[in-house]
Design brief:
The chain has helices at residues 10-21, 41-47, 62-74, 89-100, 117-120, 130-143, 159-187, 194-200, 210-221, 237-247, 253-265, 271-284; strands spanning 2-6, 25-29, 53-56, 80-83, 105-112, 123-127, 151-155, 288-289, 295-296. Helices cover 49% and strands 13% of the residues. The longest helix is centred in the middle third of the chain and has 29 residues, at 159-187. With 305 residues, it is α/β, with parallel strands linked by helices. It has twelve helices and nine strands. The strands form two sheets. It has a seven-stranded mixed β-sheet with strand order 2-1-3-4-5-6-7, sandwiched between helices. Strand 6, helix 6 and strand 7 (151-155) form a beta-alpha-beta unit.
Length: 305
């Protein structure tokens, strides 16, 4: 099939290449990428034959909304837009409704695979009507990994991004567990081959996973992780997963803790821990570390004495 791809970054560029390897005709547009085959949205729409399928793979939020709004003005009835970025699922119904007024279809598709997807394929979680999904199914079949797994029509519009959101929330929890395990192993003087411990877990254990394989790879490249700072960004999905858990009254302690740990990673001097240290010092005279790094303790009389 012929498909337009908007956004040719690390994900979109590799996806376009995988589609081409699968025999599809991809017309790519990105205002800053040398991989672009056209130089404007107008050129892309002109180059793709109707009924068109246009895949949007740009940063979630304002950029995605603006791109979809522009496509609504350029595309024709019977065309289809696929949002493959990490948009919030609640945005999908808004975009679908606006395009439907012009006779344009809409699908949302959560995509997982990162920079490895070109080689091994992408896990795809799609939302939309059966008719719209069918229009772009050949592309889904090419992008997903070989075999029966890797693609799901999760439900109506919004279902794909909701599934991807929860996927990323689970990812937060798994990475946090590996990180905490690493830290306690590193703290124990008995462990002499920390990278080897993780490597031993990659076969025959119940905690083996692709994430574990990637951690072993990272430790091979930098055994002490000395080249990294312990700072982790969150791209939104973890927050939205916790918000959904609150909305549906679903307990989510592990994923919530993993999200909050990322917030803590960005604080060089945590205000929360300053309060904890101050209180421990106040009620128990426990040692505290000053901003200059010196240790000490204070003794205060009980309130009202």
């Amino acid at each position: 099939m012929q498909i337009g791809m908007i956004g040719l970054g690390r994900m979109g560029g590799n996806m376009a290449e995988r589609l081409r390897h699968g025999g599809h005709d991809v017309v790519g547009y990105d205002p800053v990428s040398p991989l672009a085959s056209v130089h404007s949205l107008e050129d892309l729409v002109a180059a793709v034959k109707p009924p068109r399928a246009v895949w949007v793979m740009v940063p979630a939020g304002k950029i995605t909304a603006a791109t979809i709004a522009s496509l609504g003005e350029l595309l024709s009835p019977g065309d289809l837009v696929v949002d493959g970025g990490n948009s919030k699922y609640t945005d999908d119904k808004v975009h679908a409704a606006a395009l439907a007024e012009k006779g344009i279809g809409f699908c949302d598709c959560g995509v997982s695979g990162g920079v490895w997807g070109l080689q091994v394929g992408y896990a795809l979680m799609a939302g939309g009507s059966p008719d719209d999904i069918a229009k772009v199914q050949p592309a889904f079949d090419t992008l997903k990994p070989e075999g029966e797994s890797g693609f799901v029509h999760a439900g109506p519009v919004g279902a794909g991004h909701f599934a991807k959101m929860v996927h990323n929330g689970i990812e937060y929890g798994m990475m946090q567990a590996y990180g905490e395990g690493y830290e306690v192993l590193k703290a124990c003087e008995l462990i002499e081959d920390l990278p080897g411990v993780f490597k031993s877990w990659t076969a025959g254990t119940v905690i083996r996973s692709w994430l574990l394989d990637l951690l072993v790879r990272a430790l091979d490249q930098d055994p002490g992780l000395d080249q990294l700072r312990g700072w982790a960004q969150d791209s939104g999905e973890g927050r939205w997963t916790v918000e959904a858990a609150i909305e549906y009254a679903v307990p989510m302690p592990a994923i919530s803790a993993a999200l909050f740990a990322r917030f803590a990673s960005r604080e060089e001097d945590s205000p929360t821990m300053k309060v904890v240290a101050a209180l421990r010092n106040q009620f128990g005279g426990h040692a505290v570390e000053s901003a200059e790094g010196t240790l000490g303790a204070t003794s205060m009389a009980p309130p009202g004495s």
